[in-house]
Amino acid sequence: MTKNILTSFLLIFLISSNSIAQEKSTNQIKQLVESYKNDIRGPYYRIKWFCEDGSIRDAKDPCPDDLEGIQHASFKQSALDLRKTNRLFFGEILAATKTNEFLDANHNYSRLKQYQIGEYLASIDNGWVLRKGQYYRGAKQSEDEEAWGKSFFEDVLKNDNFLKTNFYLIRQALKDIPHNGDTNIGQLMRSESKILAEEIPSFMDIRIKIHGNPQKTDIDLVKNYIQKNNSKLSLQEKKDLKNLIVTMEQFYAPLDFNKIDKEVASLNGNTMVVEEIKNFSTYYKSNKSSKKIVENSASILANIRGNILDFKSSKDRLKLLDISKQLENILLIETQNWQTESLAETIRKIEVLTCASLGSGLIEFWEYDRIEKNFKSALDNQNITILELNNLLNTSRSIVEWSASLIKANYNEDVINYTNFEPMAYGFIDDRVRNSIALSLGETVSKLGNFVAKVSQINNKVMSIDNQSAIRGLNPGYAFGELVVVDGDPNVIEVNTNKIYIFQNPPSDLKPVAGIMTVSEGNLVSHVQLLARNLGIPNAALSNENLLALKKFNGKKVFYAVSNKGNVILKPESDMNNEEEKLFEKVERSKNMIEVPVADIRLDVSKVINMREVEATDSGKLCGPKAANLGELKQLFPKQVVEGLIIPFGVFKSHMNLPMPNENKTYWEYLNNAFQQADAKKKNGASEEMVEKFLLTSLKKLHTSILNIDLDKAFVQDLKTNFQSAFKNDMGNVPVFLRSDTNMEDLKEFTGAGLNLTLFNIKDEDKILQGIKRVWASAYTERSFKWRQKYLLNPENVYPSILIIPSVDVDYSGVMITKGINAGAEEDLTVAFSRGAGGAVDGQSAETRLITKKENFLLAPARQADYIRLPNYGGTKKYYTSFNNEILNEDNIDKIREFATQVRKKIGAKSGNKNQVYDVEFGFKDDKLWLFQIRPFVENKQAKSSEYLNSITPKISSSTKVSINEKI
């Protein structure tokens, strides 16, 4: 009996322990959040004494006289469990944490960032998880929180490397973590105005003004609103509006230079920085030129950042950063008062705000060095050509994008995590952008853009929204369909082939769509971008402000076009002219379809092949172009290409000829029968949607069956023998890549890039064998099927082969197109690189460069915080990076130029087409170049030569000159 009770007790304990250790689902977290909101103690349990010896005592039993202690709330068990299972920290009490645990460096500073997100949610949602708990007396002691904050900053600022690599993050933390009596007034002002607009709809216009174009005169707007609507407002509404006025007056209050002067006097470090701050203090007291104030404060911001390590005391560093924060606030106020009148002054303002972006951590020093000369060059001349003006505008737009994307790169992972269970968290990044120099910089660039559009005659016509100069075309084409505006995580959206999508950033595995626009374009040579270019899908970049303005058109039928010069049209169906309506009649009648060639396919070869035994002419016969081309590349570039094995089409086909379980037919017969039935349904009048649904259901079943197929024993043994021969070790001892390689890739008019599965760094023998089946099955996924359905007449004749190559744990990797894309000339190179393996191809925000014969131009820096490496034990390992150093060095760039020359020479000579453009995947390991793939670069010539697109492309001489002093 006792034994049974003990067994039952152990069972209950194990189940209980398992439930605690198991990660909570999104729904469970949502329920916890709601329960905390409605609990008078929120996530807290009871007030306790926490003594310096580690002991915890009840509220009425303080620490002994010989022990220091502090009093604050303890946490409910559910909140403590959530920390263990999901690494979620709600209702953080700073005084209760250790510096290193709160900084959370091993998890990319997630706990610190969560604290900031929590503070934001509390400000816009009446305390959030502390909705009632914020009134729980004694839960937090403000003096303890502030003392902890000061100690925290003085501790972390001792670390030179942390300050250098995470400058933006530490400045943002200063706004949220109490340490000198101040609070994040800017965030509070926006939060209070947002809440008021939700409660009083007629206040919305003032809220929009405060969010989008904040000025001191907004105080009068609120006061006048109260006076005008006094009889309609409740007592509480009047009280809330008056609180907003108090907050705004605090935000716009002049700096206390007496206090700043005292702090500066005690600083011990770089005398140039100290003197510059002193001079600014003197100037500011007697002068009110907004232009000069912005110029001087921007210079100080940059110099504080550049020289802060000269101040050895962490206390001095904290004082400097606090001064920097106050000066940034003054700059944000005064830049709204600096209204430019000429082209030269507008360019100067962009230059100054770019310097301020550097000083506030939004761009890095090496990035600033790349673009600073563009402004000086423009301002040194009396006249500027239309071409130079457009190039300057592109540079200016880029700085806005780099600034906004750095904010996103720092916080996006945690924001997306929170958004899953608290959708309001998504506004955090936008709030940070609005409280940064990026907002004013974007406004000034838009002003320049409007001027450039006027003199260049490149005008966007995108519905009726404001600030259209921020919109620019990336890829020509036209489309008609329902507009879908996605202001959130794009990866949770089920896309439709016939719709036009506007994303914050493109999903890495985008299924085919009619057209796309993105706030973050990813990079020019990602698989998504190349597929769009390949299929003539119109593709454009826009600002976050543009996306929000277009949300009201969500669900409307629209016409969308991007010209060859990059101007964009987006208009309602009702505004389409006859020519535009006829475009879609013509498309339906003359859709350009391709037949996958199968006449020369060799299905009789069912043995594993060494990659050295094939060349490019074997593509589509024995294997796909990846393996065939890499085999030839091994001959042409033996030192840059690894060894490899190929599982040819014939091995796949021999397995597809096996009986399919529960079907009375082979796998191959099942596949062909599915397409025959689909054709019959179509002939009998079934809609395209019904036919597609039938095929997707059939292919899903086939996909599942292939995953469970029994591999032929003779084939497995053949693979093991060849593995040992090629890689000089047994299967299971060498990590490898398994790359899908079908006969539908790299056709003359269709690239097929990235549609099927690549498996990274697999070492275990069983996982390699299962991986073979996974790669075969990937040809029948919904995404792969939908992309090829757009172009292929015989999609049932798609055969996958598999390329097996040993892993190279590259330091960084990427893609090169052997021409300029959207910038540069035919003989230039467009290169995009990310850290680690698999760089750039999946749409990461990569370091993108235009490399010419003698120079290289930064088109975009990397803004991907995480990356993967390939450890020798197999699988992948995630790392995080900062952005203070560029990825490609000068030696890499010289090797890229040299390698591109060899590619054009060797492959061009062999193919007989010296003008062919190539899409090259490669990487660097210890500065050695490793080549992974070369394929022809395919562009949609129909889109580029369309009569309609030519008709909407403006024609103006790029050499036309404009006076730099022209009114704007």
Automatic annotation (TrEMBL):
Q: Which Gene3D superfamilies match?
A: ATP-grasp fold, A domain (3.30.1490.20), ATP-grasp fold, B domain (3.30.470.20)
Q: Does the keyword Signal apply?
A: yes
Read off the Pfam families from this record. PPDK_N (PF01326)
The signal peptide here is 1-21
Q: Which UniProt keywords apply?
A: Pyruvate, Signal
Q: Does the keyword Signal apply?
A: yes
| Domain of life (superkingdom) | Bacteria
GO molecular-function term, one example from the UniProt record: ATP binding
Which parts of the sequence belong to the Pyruvate phosphate dikinase AMP/ATP-binding domain?
Answer: 622-947
Q: What is this protein called?
A: Phosphoenolpyruvate synthase
Tell me the lineage of the source organism: Bacteria, Pseudomonadati, Bacteroidota, Flavobacteriia, Flavobacteriales
